[in-house]
Recover the amino acids of this structure.
């Protein structure tokens, strides 16, 4: 009988603390301690946006730097093609000079 009396007394002593804990929690999915409910207010949300914006910005800058911003190779112009043909021996110097003067005018 004494055991049941102690059990009843200890249970009664715990009830107020259980009730307070229940009031502080919104259930098993309580995220009140996170940014919006933890006292940070709008500042916490803004800092999250600034952080992710900075991360994305740094990724874009790194990709552009490593690729040099050139996605397509340079197309040779007519004068480059003419020089290549002269270097390969397809045309002689007289033909090269004649076509070069035509292209430059």
């Amino acid at each position: 009988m004494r055991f049941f009396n102690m059990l009843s007394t200890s249970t009664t002593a715990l009830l107020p603390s259980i009730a307070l804990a229940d009031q502080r929690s919104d259930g098993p999915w309580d995220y009140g301690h996170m940014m919006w409910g933890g006292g940070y207010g709008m500042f916490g949300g803004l800092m999250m946006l600034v952080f992710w914006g900075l991360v994305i910005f740094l990724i874009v800058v790194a990709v552009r730097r490593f690729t040099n911003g050139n996605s397509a190779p340079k197309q040779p112009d007519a004068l480059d093609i003419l020089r290549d043909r002269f270097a390969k021996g397809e045309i002689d110097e007289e033909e090269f000079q004649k076509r070069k003067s035509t292209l430059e005018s």
User: Anything to note?
Assistant: The mean pLDDT is 75. Residues 33 and 58 are 30 Å apart (CA to CA). The chain has four helices and no strands.
